[in-house]
């Protein structure tokens, strides 16, 4: 099983809403990532969790709050987002220093 | 200077053509290298890892030159289904940080 599952696939939220994106993998990978991708741009790293601890925060605004409840799950909590935060949010996981596997992404629209 | 640089293209080639993509990276401490493929509105998918000795998978050949900090991907006998964006990706082990190039768009024409 080389699958990373993300839910929901699509999300429309208002600027005052609170929502969460979810990511799950059962490959035993100990590194999990959140990326943001705008149209016609490459994925941009937001957060890295290594062994369930936040190891990288790429200066992401506090309206994005990651959480790693256990080694298989990764959440991204969203609050008071702006329209420019609309993007494809990709979760990925990897074993130590190997290739990363990506989920299908959540297409987020902030209205 | 960007950490990973790619020619953005677009590359428009006829079916059956051979096409080559290049990528350079700035951090000499980078330790693993990959080519990913991304179709429109889909997630990136691993195409192949890249090794110093070079590696081949069917019609695809990848090369790494550590001295020049340069990575290449060669696609032979292009198929319509090869149309996608090809992303060069570099991994720094200590940071577990994957850095993406800007991607090269390929369209294979009938």
Largest sheet of chain B: 6 strands, mixed
Beta fraction of chain A: over 45%
Oligomer state equals heterodimer
Q: How far is it from the N-terminal to the C-terminal residue of chain A, by CA?
A: 36 Å
Q: What's the helix count of chain A?
A: 0
Q: Using the CA coordinates, give the radius of gyration of chain B.
A: 13 Å
Which protein chains make the most extensive interface, counting residues with beta carbons within 8 Å of the other chain's beta carbons? A-B, 25 and 22 residues
Task: Give the strand tally of chain A.
Answer: 11
- The sequence of SSEs of chain A as H and E is EEEEEEEEEEE
Mean pLDDT of chain B: 92
Task: Report the major sheet of chain A.
Answer: 7 strands, mixed
- Overall geometry of chain B comes to globular
What pattern of helices and strands is seen along the backbone of chain B?
EEEEEEEEEEE
Uncertain regions spanning at least 5 consecutive residues of chain B: none
Shape of chain A: globular
Range of strand content of chain B: over 45%
Helix fraction of chain A by DSSP (H/I, runs of at least 4) = under 10%
Model description:
The complex is a heterodimer of chains A (111) and B (110). Chain A has no helices and 11 strands. Chain A has 111 residues and is mainly beta. Chain A is globular. Helix content of chain B is 0%, strand content 55%. Chain B has no helices and 11 strands. Chain B has strands spanning 4-6, 11-14, 19-25, 32-38, 45-50, 55-57, 60-65, 70-75, 84-92, 97-100, 104-109. In chain B, the strands form 2 sheets. In chain B, strands 2, 4, 5, 9, 10 and 11 form a 6-stranded mixed β-sheet that branches. Chain B is globular. Chain B starts with a strand and ends with a strand. The model of chain B has no long low-confidence stretch (mean pLDDT 92).
């Amino acid at each position: 099983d080389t699958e990373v599952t993300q839910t929901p696939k699509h999300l429309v939220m208002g600027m005052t809403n609170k929502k969460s994106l979810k990511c799950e993998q059962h490959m035993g990978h100990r590194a999990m990532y959140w990326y943001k991708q705008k149209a016609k741009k490459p994925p941009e790293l937001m957060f890295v969790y290594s062994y369930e601890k936040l190891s990288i925060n790429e200066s992401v605004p506090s309206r994005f709050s990651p959480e790693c409840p256990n080694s298989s799950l990764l959440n991204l909590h969203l609050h008071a987002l702006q329209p420019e935060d609309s993007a494809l949010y990709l979760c990925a996981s990897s074993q130590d220093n190997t290739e990363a596997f990506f989920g299908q992404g959540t297409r987020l629209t902030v209205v | 200077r960007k950490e990973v640089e790619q020619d953005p293209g677009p590359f428009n080639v006829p079916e059956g053509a051979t096409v080559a993509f290049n990528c350079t990276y700035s951090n000499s401490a980078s330790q693993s290298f990959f080519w990913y493929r991304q179709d429109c509105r889909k997630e990136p998918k691993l195409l192949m890892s890249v090794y110093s000795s070079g590696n081949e998978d069917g019609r695809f050949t990848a090369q790494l030159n550590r001295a020049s900090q340069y990575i290449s991907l060669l696609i032979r006998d292009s198929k319509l289904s090869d149309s996608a964006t090809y992303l060069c990706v570099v991994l720094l082990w200590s940071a577990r940080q994957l850095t993406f190039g800007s991607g090269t768009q390929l369209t294979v024409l009938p």
